[in-house]
Amino acid sequence: MSSTLFRTKKVEQSILDTEEPEHALKKSLSALDLTVFGVGVIIGTGIFVLTGTVAKDNAGPATALAFVAAGIACALAALCYAEFASTVPVAGSAYTFSYASLGELPAWIIGWDLVLEFALGTAVVAVGWSGYIQSLMENAGWTMPAGLGSREGADAFGFDILAAALVLVLTGILVLGMKLSARITSIVVAIKVTVVLVVIIAGAFLIKGDNYDPFIPKEQPVEAGASLDSPLIQLMFGWAPSNFGVMGIFTAASVVFFAFIGFDVVATAAEETKNPQRDMPRGILGSLLICTTLYVLVSIVVTGMQHYSELSVDAPLADAFKATGHPWFAGFISFGAAVGLTTVCMILLLGQTRVFFAMSRDGLLPRFFSRVHPRFKTPHRPTILLGVIIAILAGFTPLTELAALVNIGTLFAFVVVAIGVIILRKSRPDLPRAFRTPWVPVIPILSVCASLWLMINLPAETWVRFAIWMAAGFLVYFLYGRTHSRLARHGSGEEQPSVGGGTP
């Protein structure tokens, strides 16, 4: 039993599978396309919303340091992702990497985790996009009919038609081809980066030095019962995180980490990249560096424009400009946020379909979903299926409380990838590696520690829901995946089918 659960798929076979005509994706992306995808998915709700939340509740002006801490944690993981993505340029990201290093069951677990992460992320962002659009419509004097607007906070039955429509439109774009998706993303990313730069430049002239005093506010104990938000910290160390102070910065880092989610999605497009050995590391690391720099500058500007204790939680950037007598910028920022969230939604959906596609090609999910479109060379079947499911989910369900599941799913993937780098270095030192993670095993170990630290800062409810989803995943694997995988049908990794082989 143990030998079958941890059977690995050879890297060479994974690459050969990408050459099967009916299961091969079209290679059309460059390093610039990948960087644009990364920036497109990272810059979203986080920079427009979370800055005010963590500044007011956890870190004050030191929110900039929280973004740096979260960025460092992501950078450690990004170095590991870059090595894997250039060595195993196959769709599936952490799932594919785990299959090559840790074995089938760990690969299934991480794939199942990523499906949840990207699905909830897409739905959450779609609902947020709908809220921005409705706000802009109300400013113009238009109101959505009752029952067709946002479901957030609503008690009555309704359907968020804007959120569902966005997901369906983006599904159609992804079916038509990656290059079209890249072109649309480039245009949208240019718009929202322009908005961010305007915020930084215009806001810099409105900074008041007094608002930075104190830069790190005095530490305050959490309110009674608030320690339940981070039960593992109290269990392991005997204390709960504090608001403000040095520990407040780390608490804030676990919150603003949500703003960085997405750079790992770049790795899911490895199979569709023209020169993945060269371009994947550039796309992953380049997009993360650009976004971290923008995040730090925005947080410095907004906490300098308005005292952290007075920042709004819902729209801190827009409201900071209103408070300084520049309401025009508020509408401009809302427009940029609405436009920018479209790419976040599309790229998260792209990532999910590629993971699903890779799992079906390996037989862990029905092989029916691994056929590509004869003309567009895209995985149209899983794209359409998942797009419809997520559209329904986004339309009917208020998802704010589930957003933390996206965080824990991403961090779990980071842990697995970092461990996989160490294992593959030991088991396959002969593999050609266009990019090598420096200081192995130090960097991967630091990545694991940083990710685990952020995970234990997440609410107890998040861990419970995550455990339930994982239990469901084990059930599906043992009832279907273990007996239908291509490795099960063709023996061990030493006897895998050649190109064109396998079950149709």
UniProtKB/TrEMBL annotation:
Its main location: membrane. GO terms for cellular component: membrane. It is found in: Membrane. The keyword Transcription does not apply. Keywords: Membrane, Transmembrane, Transmembrane helix, Transport. The keyword Transmembrane helix applies. It holds the Pfam family AA_permease_2. The chain crosses the membrane at residues 31-50, 62-84, 105-129, 156-177, 184-207, 244-263, 284-308, 328-351, 383-399, 405-424, 436-456, 462-480. It is a multi-pass membrane protein. One of its GO terms (molecular function) is amino acid transmembrane transporter activity. This is APA family basic amino acid/polyamine antiporter.
